[in-house]
Amino acid sequence: MASFLKTARRSEPGTAAEIVVPPPPTERWAPALLAAAAELTGSEPTFAEDPAALPHGFGPWAFGLRLGDDPIGLTVRLATDRAELEREVAAMERSRAHGCAAPTVRGIVALDPEQGAADGSSVSWALLTDVVDAVGLPELIGFNLHHSTELLDGFAAHHDAIHRFPIDDLLDHSAIPVIDAPTEVARIDADRYPAERAWLDEHVAPSGTPVLCHGGYQPLAVFGPPAEAWPDHGGPGHGLTVVNWAGAVLAEPELDMAFTLVAFWSAPFFAPNRSERTAIKMIRNTLLSTYKQGYTARRQIDPDRLRFWQAFHALRGMARIDGAYDADGSPFAAADRGAVPTDLGPELHRHFRQLTRVR
To answer: What is this structure's pTM?
Structure first.
């Protein structure tokens, strides 16, 4: 079992403990990053301000940087091996090539392999991208509630568009992993969850037609133009940019859609305080159903496959919290470095039972 599953920390006062894999302290990797950035910028940059950790919507181990006297804004994603970042770059390049905005890549740079992460692994690589000059979807919705349906419909349309990219050339020897459902189900400890694993094992269907899946598509990873710029982009819900491609995989679209549905369902547990958690719980079903209706209006989905993948994501989340998930070689391992509230575990179990009727 991967050691990082055992790393826990206490969140801000008033919120739940979290399972999280913290990155190494910035002073251990920032000097090497500056040296590498010099090759990309053609100068000897300095930090205009200290690197700042970005919200989890940007992906695990993501930081915002401003470099130089005339500051250049960059986002950096740290990784333990180059393949993690090549996977992201391949997915973002595919997205941009087919009209769906993603961060512009500056390059992948090598860092000092001796600078280890908290779990003992080396943080040897960094992906540098330009900053996204847009507004997060939750903020857009919060300040434009009367346009929330249009914004969520655009969110759904963008997801469907990602799933329509041609991928024939990605299926062989690609940097992006292909999902095999039985293999991924088998990573969940059957001794810890016998009835739940039995349900998943019994309901694995032959793989459907694969598409490019973002792997972490949820509102915190989606940005759009401010309201005053909507006319230039075709209205609310248009001109969206998607970040955090750390979990990109090739799989049937139901896997990706299921993650989004479970993310909507789980959203209250990531709220910073009880009052916000209550408020999100009151609207999550509306948000969830609006997204689902927008997506299924554009693409026919298999409800049984969708239910299977929703149950899979719920059980995998429970197993991660309980240390009952074998992440060795998992295509989800990099994305799993982000924080998960431990009090989400029992609620995911309840959600699994709602989806499957397993008791």
So the answer is: 0.91
